[in-house]
Amino acid sequence: MFSGLVAGTGEITKIIKQGKTIELMVRPQIADFLTNVKHGDSIAVNGTCLTVVSIIDNQFSTTLMPQTFEKTTFKNLQAGSLVNLERSLQVGSRLEGHIVTGHVDEVSQVIERKANENAIELKFNLPQHLVGQIIAQGSIAINGVSLTVMDTSSKWFTVGLIPHTQFITNLDRLAVGDEVNLETDILGKYVVTNLSGGRK
């Protein structure tokens, strides 16, 4: 489980496809990020919960199944791409942001970007099966970053990036047409599912 408060970014140094699995090598750009990280630990990479397989020369490797690779933005990334990184929460630590599971719901696309003083406002298309799970002033994870929804309709939603978020994540690099990983609020999922009688 994660909070959506990413520690910073990392650089993908290698993507290797071996049969039906994909190996990813990532070099964190955050000092001491891998301190005490061991084989089997969970790290959110662009909002996707992945398991550490090995740690070599300040890099960690992880393995993606084809379904994860195709369902997320990993299919668009290459060596040199920057990804957001967050280590899993520890029991007893402060819970800021919101509860993020690391299970990506859908890929969305940037349809508008504009500056608003020192903030950046981004508009994304809203996948139809997620309508009702995204509400104004609610929480959403975009590439693993916990953000507050500014406004929404049946076809789109908007968020704002404060300077700190622009500096510490890869979201400031987004342009119109770019794709991102979305995860809606887990509490909202339970509410929608129960109100619909268990139907998705």
Overview of this structure, please?
This protein has helices at 66-71, 163-168, 186-195, and strands at 8-18, 21-28, 42-45, 48-56, 59-64, 82-87, 106-116, 119-125, 139-142, 145-152, 156-161, 179-184. The protein is globular. The protein has a 6-stranded antiparallel barrel. Strands 7-8-11-10-9-12 form a 6-stranded antiparallel β-barrel. With 200 residues, the protein is mainly beta. The mean pLDDT is 92. Helix content is 11%, strand content 43%. It has 2 domains: 8-87, Beta Barrel (Elongation Factor Tu (Ef-tu), domain 3), CATH 2.40.30; 106-195, Elongation Factor Tu (Ef-tu), domain 3 (Beta Barrel). It is built from 3 helices and 12 strands; from the N terminus they run βββββαββββββαβα. This is Riboflavin synthase.
Shape: globular
Q: Unreliable stretches, pLDDT < 50, 5 or more residues? A: none
**What is the rounded distance between the termini?**
23 Å
Per CATH, the class of the largest domain reads: Mainly Beta
Class derived from helix and strand content: mainly beta
Radius of gyration: 17 Å
Largest sheet: 6 strands, antiparallel, barrel
Instruction: Estimate the mean pLDDT confidence.
Output: 92
Number of strands: 12
SSE topology string: EEEEEHEEEEEEHEH
Count of the separate structural domains = 2
Cross-sheet strand order for the largest sheet? 1-2-5-4-3-6
Beta-strand percent range: 35-45%
Q: Can you give the helix content as a percent range?
A: 10-25%
Level-2 CATH architecture of the largest domain: Beta Barrel
Number of helices: 3
- CATH fold-level name of the largest domain: Elongation Factor Tu (Ef-tu), domain 3
